[in-house]
């Protein structure tokens, strides 16, 4: 059954006809691929048909050899804007002499999906023109879209990607929308979310008691008035709700922080366009391009102080970076057009919980009698089937670095040539405890889910299971093997152990390195520097500062940060003065430490310090090899932090200090300190242990000499970077091979440290594997687990 008007073929029997059947996989559904094929068929006078199925797109064509060759060349060299071809092949087919046209056939379903689910994309220029044109039927319509933009992943229930498999199934198209939807030459041909004010989703404005106050355009007008009046709104976007207020209204921003119990963590700001962005940030051309790209991520940029109307100081307090992003839906665009001011737009959720996707959940969680965050809600009736947060990225050393993989980039699909040599089983990787993502494969294509988050609550575990169910449903997979983190008490590990499939565990920092191998489709050995906050090591200790000689088969631990005690277990992470105290107790008595009168310890009673010293002396506290914890201890020593208010806070503070000192021309002063992280011989480690006590002793001395905090911050990160580079050189020499280097783990989100390492490695001629779109933090671990599972799984027998 055909879905569209056919086009007549120019073919006649005067030439020899040949027939081919093409099979295409990749991002080829919901991106205008079939109408593009239709247009190519019309261009070259081909007969046949094109259809979607769970495996991708199938194209049957017949024509003379010259026309087929021209068509084949166009397939290889042209492409719709959002399409990506992962595989393309054809086989000869039988000629149908009666065939005289080309048509688009109805989609068919298959038992296993090979097509990549498309990612949500921001509103295209053509749709933006229409919503601003009073004479267009889409004028001011906040859900305008076409095949070049709009929702994909967040509205899909199943493959193939057709309207009845999306959350738009309940919206019957009006005559105008149906005409566009059925015209292969219209850019809205089979744009599944296509709609207009007559037939599509609509807004509603609701107070924090759940009373509906307005709908449609009046709802929009009420939301604009509320924002301008300093109110805090929950506004439904593509993949979930934002908490929104005027970013220049200090009272509104501080109220949001108080209500949400978020005292310090930076808030993202949505700006109307590049002109507005330039008032609040200083950036390179590459960063401006990233900010305005169709993915529309939150981009971390250098703050500007030149704004005529400044942002509230509470937006990103005490740091030199700000996260900006541009509107990515027609609704956001219309809001920014109306309010003419930047907006705080932060994920709507309870602390530690996933983003909220449903209006009733907003009212229940953020507008109840005990916890009232919002004043009102701008909701709509297009269901979000798959939640998806905003992506967070930055430019680091001229390369894109992904910190949170989500809207615009995810689900991320990575076809692998290395894995294409054998028939592979289905493997599911369930990721770590924090910044969780999932990964699975279909054949030799790897898929990494959008950011799920930290699995510390029942709500977060539920979100994990819903995302997993969506992936299983969309890709029609049932895993033959499950891969988990080595830590048995992670929520994802516990879930894996409850399943009937075989389960294998992969060490956390090794998985970090493997994720980079997968990102580069690389199958050789590397020197992997895996630096983060924590992860269970193979010896039962807490790792986090590791140099691993690694490949897909296994790893050898070459070097590690020397351990220090976590005084009070988890309390040491929340109150990192305990980390600093543990480092000091490795070389000084408690009396000596109290006598130092360190500013960071002045508010603490000597009795508490002496009790902690006794606990330290008992030697029963767990020990950490973590570079991330070393940043925490330094931030306390410098008097910049007492309690950790959000993950990565110390790293951001240290980088801010370093950047300010760099701007003030203090880099040479930092280099003159000549801080070092020496490498000492240690049993079982080929290179040895980096001596944290020696480094911290130097940091203490610099602080006691009243050196500038920024100078100390620079010198500390230079010492870390020098240790990395010297160890890479030494390892290459001992191993007799110029192995490439991997820099992975959350510590390398610190741009100052990472860019210093890039420069030093390049100066020494050492190759480094980039991360590409795979998060450098724990968000990439599931991909590393998947890579390990696929490399170690028993290949399936080749199909007969």
From TrEMBL:
InterPro entries: Acylphosphatase-like_dom, Acylphosphatase-like_dom_sf, Acylphosphatase_CS, Carbamoyltrans_HypF-like, Carbamoyltransferase_HypF, DHBP_synth_RibB-like_a/b_dom, HypF_C, HypF_C_2. Pathway: Protein modification; [NiFe] hydrogenase maturation. Its EC number is 6.2.-.-. Residues 217-408 form the YrdC-like domain. Residues 19-106 form the Acylphosphatase-like domain. GO terms for molecular function: acylphosphatase activity; carboxyl- or carbamoyltransferase activity; double-stranded RNA binding; ligase activity; zinc ion binding. GO terms for biological process: protein maturation. Keywords: Hydrolase, Ligase, Metal-binding, Zinc, Zinc-finger. It catalyses: C-terminal L-cysteinyl-[HypE protein] + carbamoyl phosphate + ATP + H2O = C-terminal S-carboxamide-L-cysteinyl-[HypE protein] + AMP + phosphate + diphosphate + H(+); an acyl phosphate + H2O = a carboxylate + phosphate + H(+). Gene3D superfamilies: 3.30.110.120, 3.30.420.360, 3.30.420.40, 3.90.870.50. The active site is at 34, 52. It is an enzyme of class 6 (ligase). The keyword Lipid metabolism does not apply. Belongs to the carbamoyltransferase HypF family. Involved in the maturation of [NiFe] hydrogenases. Along with HypE, it catalyzes the synthesis of the CN ligands of the active site iron of [NiFe]-hydrogenases. HypF functions as a carbamoyl transferase using carbamoylphosphate as a substrate and transferring the carboxamido moiety in an ATP-dependent reaction to the thiolate of the C-terminal cysteine of HypE yielding a protein-S-carboxamide. This is Carbamoyltransferase HypF. It comes from Shewanella fodinae.
